[in-house]
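Fill in residues.
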């Protein structure tokens, strides 16, 4: 092995280590629909994580059919699991404040997302959620699958028009 080859290998190793450890999220290219701040390790804009639709789409998609307290019958929601989203930014806190476009805010314990398949929904019945209609993102709990979720304490946490999470 030539000195040059050896040197290239060393650089290659250093480079792949820094990629593995550097651990920042790619920057958003399109409109940002969700920002996460606070106790997170992976960021892409200052000390926050900003997601456009493409960055969110790196997470596995999930579907949830459930009734809600604000619609009739059963709706089909699609989106991402809140626990996958929080794992993606390496959230470390106890709870998250969820803030909406209409200035609504509520504190949600992070344990909810481990105990239940809580969805960050971006579509309902196949239609993309828009800000006129509870979008662009709506936190949706699997209320039909768990009796204890059919409670006002959880109804508060179904934040529609979600735009920001502050992990604490
Ligand atoms: N963005 C946003 N999400 C929200 C609210 C709100 O005012 N704004 N109200 C919460 C409350 S108090 C409940 S009970 C449920 C249903 O609220 P609604 O009946 O006012 O639609 O949504 C929750 N999510
Ligand atoms: Mo409410």
């Amino acid at each position: 092995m030539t000195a040059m080859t050896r040197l290239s290998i060393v650089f290659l190793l250093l480079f792949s280590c820094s990629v593995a450890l550097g651990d920042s999220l790619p920057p958003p290219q399109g409109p940002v629909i969700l920002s996460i701040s606070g106790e997170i390790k992976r960021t892409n804009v200052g000390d926050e994580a900003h997601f456009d639709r493409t960055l969110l789409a790196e997470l596995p998609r999930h579907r949830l059919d459930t009734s809600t307290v604000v619609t009739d019958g059963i709706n089909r929601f699609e989106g991402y699991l809140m626990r996958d989203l929080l794992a993606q930014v390496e959230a470390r806190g106890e709870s998250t404040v969820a803030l909406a476009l209409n200035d609504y805010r509520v504190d949600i314990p992070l344990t909810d997302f481990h105990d239940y398949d809580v969805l960050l929904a971006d579509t309902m019945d196949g239609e993309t959620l828009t800000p006129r209609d509870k979008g662009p993102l709506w936190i949706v709990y699997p209320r039909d699958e768990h009796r204890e979720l059919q409670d006002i304490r959880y109804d508060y946490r179904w934040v529609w028009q979600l735009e920001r999470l502050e992990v604490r």
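The first helix runs from residue 3 to 22.
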